[in-house]
Amino acid sequence: MLGVHPDFQGKGRGKALVQQGLGLADKEGVCASVISAEGKEGFYRKLGLDNQVGTASEGAGNPMRGVQGGYILFREVITGN
Questions:
Q1: Digit-coded pLDDT (tens) for 6-34
Q2: Phi, psi dihedral angles at 34 (to 5 degrees)
Q3: Strands (DSSP E) along 9-70, which ranges?
Q4: Which domain range does residue 79 map to?
Q5: What domain count does the chain have?
Q6: Is 0.90 topped by the overall pTM?
Q7: Distance CA 63, CA 23 (A)
């Protein structure tokens, strides 16, 4: 689990972390997913994680039930690398 402290956001650090993770996923031939903080899903969509498959607060008995955000964004396996 990773995050960028608000004092360091907007300086390319988060983008670099996500791109590194996506590069590793490509190299290993696996899909990639993230759980987005409230209001940050656009950041991930711009980087290719554009398929929303749910939220981390779904499901009966989930201790995160009712927590805002937590969108699960997914990117299919990239083939042909």
A1: 999 999 999 999 999 999 999 999 999 99
A2: -140, 160
A3: 32-36, 51-55
A4: 33-81
A5: 1
A6: no
A7: 32
